[in-house]
Amino acid sequence: MASMTTEGKLLAQDDIDSLLDEAGLEGNYESEEPEKKPPAARKKRSIVRFSTKSDYDVQDTIVLLYNKAFLEREDDIKVIWNASGTIPMTTGIDMEIQGTGYVSLGVLHENHLVVKSKG
What we know:
Layout: E1 5-6, E2 9-10, H1 13-22, H2 55-69, E3 77-80, E4 94-97, E5 100-108, E6 112-117
Antiparallel strand pairs: 1-2, 3-6, 4-5, 5-6
């Protein structure tokens, strides 16, 4: 590489590297190595495992999931799931759903509306 000077003074390698970095031409030009390609992606095999679960185990799991899916609430309280964008999500709105009158109580987890029957 030709020597670089400024105002008659020879620049050090650090100065040259910083100038190249500022110009967006960073890199080590003396020991260039070819770029390595990433290894080819392998296809994963799906493995099916059979287990010996009894009917009782399956029923117990279904009951557990069912209980976690629903919130405990009074008979006249309902939750409209994913109501956001389809029903006004403000408190105190009167509405009729399938012939039953309801008033909205508020929002649950940003997307669900809690309503109480007016009866």
